[in-house]
TrEMBL record:
InterPro entries: Acyl_CoA_acyltransferase, Bact_Acetyltransf, GNAT_dom
N-acetyltransferase domain: residues covered: 3-136, 147-279
Keyword Zinc among UniProt keywords: no
Species this chain originates from: Nonomuraea wenchangensis
Keywords: Acyltransferase, Ribonucleoprotein, Ribosomal protein, Transferase
CC per GO annotation: ribosome
Keyword Ribonucleoprotein: yes
GO molecular function, one term: acyltransferase activity, transferring groups other than amino-acyl groups
PANTHER family on file: AMINOALKYLPHOSPHONATE N-ACETYLTRANSFERASE-RELATED-RELATED
Protein name, as recorded: Ribosomal protein S18 acetylase RimI
Amino acid sequence: MTIEWAPLSAADLPAIAELARRCLAHDGGLPATTSPSFLERRYAAGPGVGAYAGGRLVACAAAGPAGQATAVTGLVDPAHRGQGLGSDLLDRLAKGPVRLETESLTPEADALFRARGFRRTFAEDVFRRDLALPLPDVPLPPELAVEEWSPATEEVFHAAYSASFADRPGFPGWSRQEWVDWLVDDEFLPGCSLVARTADGAAAGFVACAEGFLIQVGAVPEWRRRGLARALAVAALGRMRAAGATEVFLDVNENNPASAALFRGLGFETVARRARYEN
């Protein structure tokens, strides 16, 4: 079949969305990666190219700034893989220092990237849980009080976040305002986001949620290995289910096996891997 190449434009977003949905159904991943806002950010903000077979978009990629490098992301229709389209996309857009970004890594893509001299610098596993399944009974420690997200609790939430993740690799050390700006958007769920406090008001742990997504769950060092993160996650899942959610997703870095084990124990299953590669 003849492949025709053409530059991408905003007018191609509906076709890109259809291609993204076909890839998601085949590879798994986060449903949000097929949303109009996500695709517009990835494919309409910089130069891009599309491959068409019989007038149908079967592969595409786009480039954008990423510090001193160029970020490149792309999609290849599952029915048209193994024909060199991924390699062609790299030839057209991967110039100079490049960061490749994929939301649903496949073994074939990993092999291609490595063969082209790229090394993986980041990976997160995407987990999903069906909220129609029963939730385990995991009570919160009785000596802790739990509060929802509000302007009055932002400070203790940030304290819980900072203490929970300060010892994690790559911790950004965000100020309260930087973290809130990153965390809170139109899909944030304040009523499902909880912070646990001791009797003297100190932060013990927290969970932050968005629509269909557990953003972060953590316990401060002195409250680890006491079931707090597990209890907060279950409490948040129960609230999300009561609000009408039928499934929930989350990301876990590949260098955090303890967190992955915690969520598998709560009924989550791995559905995809997000990754970044650099040359």
